[in-house]
Amino acid sequence: MAVKLRLARHGRKSIPFYYIVATDSRTPRDGKFIERIGSYNPTTNPATIELNFDKALTWLMTGAQPTETVRRILSYKGVLMKKHLLDGVRKGAFDEAEADKRYVAWEKTKISKISDKIKGLDDNRIKDEKAKLEAEKAIKEQRAAAIAKKYAEAVKAQAEEKEEEDANNQIVEDVVVEDTTSVEVEASVETPAENIEEVSQEPETNNEEESTEK
Predict the structure, then answer these.
(1) Residue 25 phi, psi dihedral angles, 5° rounding
(2) pLDDT digit string, tens, across residues 175-199
(3) Which domain range does residue 37 map to?
(4) Residue 21, domain member (yes or no)
(5) What angle do CA 67, 71, 74 make, to 5 degrees?
């Protein structure tokens, strides 16, 4: 039986989650498996990998063939490096102590690289959040400026409308005053003529009374 190390898909639609499994190469991708040796979540950054190192190494040493994706995962976790060193010990290239020493040095370098990558991701995330906040602040300031401008224009339009209304009211008042003045002038011109007529009539009355008395 040929054994493969591959991914078995789980999770919801658009949110994949995988088991890393050892399975018969003839079994469908998401069918039954012999043993689950880990999990892989690609939706996080960096991807979340949980792996039973010893089981994965045992399957590799007994001839199990990983798929390309699983091979990259095993390389990332150091399983392939460990297998390579054990193969060197078995061939007599170096002893087991030297193999452990080399693996520890590789692991230290790998951890340093992973830490630098995570730090870089954190720095980029902080920069992105800062840039996002600055963009939101700029948008809020633009909206506030637009609202203030609109309010100022409304106040100005209202003031101009009131000023125009006051000017029209003043014109109406001036016309009314002018008309009233004209009426008073005409009345004052007519009054002396009436007085003259009354005065001219009064002597005639007196003469009539005098003639009657005689």
Answers:
(1) -60, -20
(2) 666 666 655 555 555 555 555 455 4
(3) 3-93
(4) yes
(5) 140
